[in-house]
Specification:
The complex is a heterodimer of chains A (427) and B (250).
Chain A lengths: L1 H17 L1 H26 L7 E7 L4 H12 L3 E4 L1 E2 L2 E2 L2 H9 L5 E5 L3 H19 L5 H6 L10 E4 L5 H31 L20 E2 L2 E2 L4 H15 L2 H13 L2 H7 L4 H29 L15 H25 L3 H19 L10 H7 L3 H13 L5 H29 L3
Parallel strand pairs in A: 1-2, 1-5
Antiparallel strand pairs in A: 3-4, 5-6, 7-8
Chain B lengths: L2 E10 L9 E9 L3 E5 L6 H8 L7 E6 L2 E2 H11 E4 L11 H10 L5 H14 L15 H13 L5 E5 L7 H16 L3 E5 L3 H7 L2 E6 L2 E6 L1 H7 L6 H9 L8
Helix pairs in contact in B: 3-4, 3-5, 5-6
Classes of the chains: A alpha/beta (427), B alpha/beta (250).
């Protein structure tokens, strides 16, 4: 039995080595994928990125508020604020057209008299409070009783802009305006109290401090590489489904699989040969990606992968992810009749599994029903196990449930494949 | 002589098929025979060979090879039979030697024994000089010969051949027939299907003409010709028994 498995492994290695183009794709494409996605994801979340997003600012206010918005946006380093076209101030109509045509992603329109009206509203409110305490200027309350209408800062977004970006920008602007309002309120109180030397502490009283896991006394702060490498390595490993399923379909179409069925060898022995070979490939892919993340990423301007996790445990998780991917590949290859069926189905289903598994969007951000579906996805088990090891400093016992499920998935898919193959013979 | 293959009341009806491909099919094949299984397209020959090789299960009935009942000893049966399918069931990107070493190893042949068997067979069929070339570069005749060797490396007691000489030149055909006759002299029983009736008449010791999933006639080629009125050769016997209507199997 072992001899036959060994010979099957040799055969698979020979077949792979004879398809040099295919072998290069197997190893190079996952690397290209991980590097590309990490570069993109990293720059998206970087605050000091070189690429700034140009945004239009239509200033009808010309006051303190618009100046503050302008200054804050410019300070953020993420935006390049444009307020003039051909040396002329941008009009709202121009801004709207440019954004809706996709030339710019965002336009902010600050209404006329915003600074003045904001100040008036604050003065009215502060005065009212002070008067109720008997220290206000009652004559001022009488004269400044004019109605101040609510103001709207208009935001125009390119319809192609994603909701995440939209929400981020809206929240940043909201925060900016709240800060201006707070400062104005403090200033109004100060003026009413007539305390020129009295200074309010305007810094936020409540701050956030992120507590991250530590190893010894050293904080382990996750960077984009720690997040992206496991996710995209897993994704790349699952792409083994395509060459493996094509390999099985080819064996069926060229008659070698039928010949093997007439030989005194069990189908599972043949599949074991494939499993071992493709597991070796999966592990090589995994170590190559780790090596690139460690050695090459810093040269690409990315943070390096910090090896502050157990490589042994990480390898174990990768091994079981490989098992799950191979089981799925065997199932696809057994059921598909042609390469035209197996290749597109294999690739599309891997992308779907990745989406369900939380590779694109975190599971916690998914709708409730999709979260339930995600919990049944092998890629989700793999991803969780990878994150457990890399980011949560997990031990073997912590990842046992996930790797157990991954192996169960392998057993289930290969059993279905073998039963399906057997059933075909009773046609 | 003892029958090495005993087929009892075998039937096969494919899912959704209107008719039985094999219908109460019974046949004995004696040890040491070169047995020709002849019939028009769709007669049931390939279905019978596929069942005897363990590729598909019969709907009912049973068969045994060398006393081993299929229903109880399916795996053991595969050790004593050899199969040469009609298509080139080889890995095109592997060399002839690599293909043969792999398929030989699936019969448990190892080490020096495996190497020697591969070399000797390649030499006998005139392929030793091409042993280390990829099969995809071979002509049809060369592929057919490698295909044959892959089925006989383990020296089977019963060899099933599905049209082993189809699409090959006269030289390759001659080499294949000679090799099969040598195997037969060494004790291998051969079960062979072909549409080359002249070849079958010359090569086979016994013949069954099958149609509609049943045996229409079974005897030596000479006896079949003699039994059939106005028959000069096996083709006349064949047409007389199976008719001249076209048989387009789908």
């Amino acid at each position: 039995m072992l001899y036959k498995i060994y010979q099957s492994v040799l055969k698979e290695i020979l077949l792979l080595s004879r398809d040099l183009g295919g072998a290069i794709i197997l190893f190079v494409m996952p690397l290209v994928l991980v590097i590309t996605v990490t570069l993109i994801q990293d720059s998206t979340f970087k605050q000091t990125g070189n690429a700034k997003i140009p945004i239009l600012l239509v200033d009808h206010d010309h006051g303190k508020v618009s100046q503050s918005v302008n200054d804050n946006l410019a300070k953020s380093n993420a935006f390049d604020v444009i307020s003039r076209f051909d040396n002329q101030p941008i009009t709202e109509a121009q801004a709207k057209e440019a954004v809706f045509k996709g030339k710019y992603q965002l336009a902010i329109v600050i209404p006329a008299d915003l600074s003045h009206d904001l100040q008036a509203k604050i003065d009215q409110n502060v005065n009212k409070i002070m008067t109720s305490f008997g220290v206000g200027d009652s004559s001022a309350t009488a004269t400044d009783k004019k109605k101040v209408t609510q103001k709207e800062v208009k935001l125009y977004f390119d319809p192609a802009v994603q909701i995440g970006f939209k929400n981020g920008v809206m929240s940043a602007i909201d925060q900016m305006i709240s800060q201006i309002e707070t400062q104005s309120i403090y200033a109004a109180f100060k003026e009413q109290l007539g305390e020129t030397e009295f200074d309010f502490e305007q810094q936020s009283f409540i701050n956030f401090k992120e507590i991250v896991p530590t190893i010894g006394n050293k904080e382990v702060k996750p960077n984009s590489v720690q997040h992206n490498v496991p996710a995209w390595t897993l994704f790349a490993m699952f792409f083994i489904v395509i060459p493996l399923s094509i390999n099985i379909v080819k064996e069926k179409s060229q008659g070698t699989f039928v010949r093997l069925q007439t030989n005194p060898v069990r189908t599972w022995v043949v599949m074991a040969g494939k499993t071992i070979t493709y597991l070796i490939i999966c592990m090589l892919q995994f170590y190559m990606i780790l090596a690139v993340a460690f050695f090459v990423f810093p040269h690409l301007g990315l943070p390096p992968l910090h090896f502050n996790f157990s490589l042994m445990l990480m390898s174990l998780v990768a091994l079981f992810c490989g098992f799950a991917a191979i089981g799925y590949g065997i199932l696809v290859g057994t059921i598909a009749k042609t390469q035209e069926q197996s290749a597109p189905f294999g690739s599309t289903s891997v992308i779907i599994l990745a989406a369900i598994g939380g590779v694109w969007v975190p599971v916690f951000a998914m709708p409730e029903m999709m979260q339930i579906v995600a919990r049944c996805s092998p890629m989700n088990w793999g991803l969780n196990a990878f994150y457990d090891v890399i980011l949560r400093q997990a031990r073997l016992v912590d990842v046992l449930p996930e790797i157990g499920l991954l192996f169960l998935f392998f057993l289930l898919t290969t059993t279905i494949a073998l039963l399906y193959d057997k059933k075909k013979r009773t046609v | 002589m003892q029958p090495i293959i005993q087929i009892n009341d075998l039937a096969k009806k494919y899912k959704d098929a209107e008719f039985y491909s094999l219908n109460h099919f019974s046949l004995d094949i004696l040890q040491g025979e070169i047995f020709g299984l002849l019939g028009p397209n769709g007669a049931g020959k390939s279905t019978l060979i596929s069942i005897l090789c363990g590729l598909i299960d019969p709907t009912s009935g049973s068969f045994s090879i060398k006393g081993l009942d299929y229903n109880r000893h399916a795996f053991a049966l595969k050790k004593i039979i050899g199969v040469v399918p009609q298509e080139y069931a080889l890995y095109p990107t592997m060399t002839a030697r690599e293909n043969l070493v792999y398929f030989g190893s699936m019969y448990g042949i190892k080490g020096r024994d495996l190497k020697d068997k591969v070399t000797q067979s390649l030499e006998f069929l005139g392929l030793l000089n091409f042993a280390d070339r990829r099969v995809e570069t071979f002509s049809g005749g060369m592929k057919r010969r490698v295909n044959l060797i892959a089925g006989i490396l383990h020296e089977p007691e019963v060899l099933f051949l599905d049209e082993p000489t189809v699409g090959v030149d006269v030289q390759s055909k001659n080499a294949i027939i000679e090799y099969l006759q040598r195997l037969n002299r060494n004790g291998t029983t051969i079960v062979y299907t072909s549409h080359h009736l002249a070849e079958a008449q010359e090569f086979c010791t016994d013949i069954a003409i099958v149609d509609q999933g049943r045996v229409f006639a079974k005897n030596t080629p000479q006896a079949l010709i003699a039994e059939t009125p106005n028959a000069k050769d096996l083709e006349d016997v064949f047409l007389s028994l199976t008719g001249k209507g076209l048989r387009d199997a789908v």
